Description:
Mean pLDDT: 88
CATH class of the largest domain: Mainly Alpha
Helix content: over 70%
Number of strands: 0
CATH architecture of the largest domain: Orthogonal Bundle
CATH topology of the largest domain: Tetracycline Repressor, domain 2
Largest sheet: none
Order of helices and strands: HHHHHHHHHHHH
Amino acid sequence: MTRKQREVREREQRLLQIARKMLIEQGYAGLSMDQLAEAAEYSKGTIYQHFATKEDLVTALAIESMERRVELFLRAEQFAGRPRERMLAIGVADEIFSRLETHHYQSEFIIKLANLRERASIERREALDRLESTCFGCVVRIVRAGVESGDLPKHVDPRELVYSVFTMALGTHMTALHYCPMLKEFQINDPIKVLLNGIHILLDGFEWHPLRSEWDYSATYQRIFTEIFSHECRSLSAQ
């Protein structure tokens, strides 16, 4: 890139960083182009050079978060193991995203609930669609590999299985993010651990072999961190 292009990119990254902080602290209603311009010390005209609307700005934040999630998921998909072990690697990638990319993780849910896509620019909508398709594609390919290998019954619809896992993960993350009273009432200190256990029960119900009674998935869990997420593991240990 030219010097000017680098400067424009750096300015946009700074604007996104400020906007994400405002979104987390004040919610979607508390984020405005006026406030962003004031916080960043730029004119509104400069802000609109980067983002056509407030919705376009928030979609840009979603893209930034999804890029990081996709990078983790693609690495997880390459884990050397049976398909169900690779599905566990996706779960580990999701866990890492929630624990290490806290601001991305928090803002991601605010953005999903706001349902802003229609007023974003076509370019950003298409970019977000591609990233989401890549993310779900990783998981669907793993499930299909399970069917093709014979580890999953032929009648299993990969889309239904992925949807079931996704809704479990979404519900867990939402309760954890909003400090649901149920967590305290049930004395659940580690929702992610409970989620992984619940997904194992779900996959056993789909008859995805090896079943948990047949395989040491705790060893697989440790191997995933060692082999593909060693850097992230060190970062988690340092927290």
